[in-house]
Amino acid sequence: MPKTSALETLIELAQTRTDDAARRLGFLNAQGLDMEAKLVLLTEYSDEYRVRLRASMQQGLTAAGWRNYHEFIDKLDAAISQQQEALALMRQRMAASKAAWQSERRVLNSYDTLAQRHRQIQLAHQAKREQRETDEWASSAAIRPGSI
């Protein structure tokens, strides 16, 4: 079984951490989209309810009916405000998660760069060794009579 180098272990750990950070970011993005959709629905419902209130006022509306409309609109406005605050917090969490993912990605890229440099150095050493062996074989063949 080939021995795993310390750099390969670091790359595997960095890849795992990057993948975990990406999953967290994806989860938060999905939650953020859901929260945005809920905010849009609340806003649309509030707009529709206000249109109904205006239509009811044109047709004649009792004081109790008017009070019910306004109480419900106030509750919708509170829900919209709460959803906006929750969405703002989620966006902060998403930004922090994105920054964490980018940081993990930079670490992984750094390790990958080191591994590539290490491979290039190994290939250069191997090429020199092969050239030296070829030169030694050629010089020994030239020294032996009748070997060519």
List the SSEs and their pairings.
Elements: H1 6-59, H2 63-143
Structure description:
α1 (6-59) packs antiparallel against α2 (63-143). The protein starts with 5 loop residues before the first helix and ends in a 5-residue tail after the last helix. It is rod-shaped and about 120 Å long. It has a domain at 6-105: Helix Hairpins. It is 91% helix and 0% strand. The protein has 148 residues and is mostly helical. The chain contains two helices and no strands.
In short:
It contains two helices and no strands. It has helices at 6-59, 63-143.
Described by strand count, sense and barrel closure, the largest sheet is: none
The end-to-end span amounts to 42 Å
Compute the CA-based radius of gyration: 34 Å
Write the CATH fold name of one domain: Helix Hairpins
What structural category do the secondary elements indicate? mainly alpha
Global morphology = rod-shaped
- Parts with pLDDT < 50 across at least 5 consecutive residues: none
Mean pLDDT: 91
By DSSP (H or I, 4+ residues per run), the number of helices equals 2
Total beta strand runs: 0
- What is the second-level CATH architecture of one domain? Orthogonal Bundle
What's the helix-strand series?
HH
Instruction: Report strand %.
Output: under 5%
CATH class designation of one domain:
Mainly Alpha
Fraction of helical residues:
over 70%
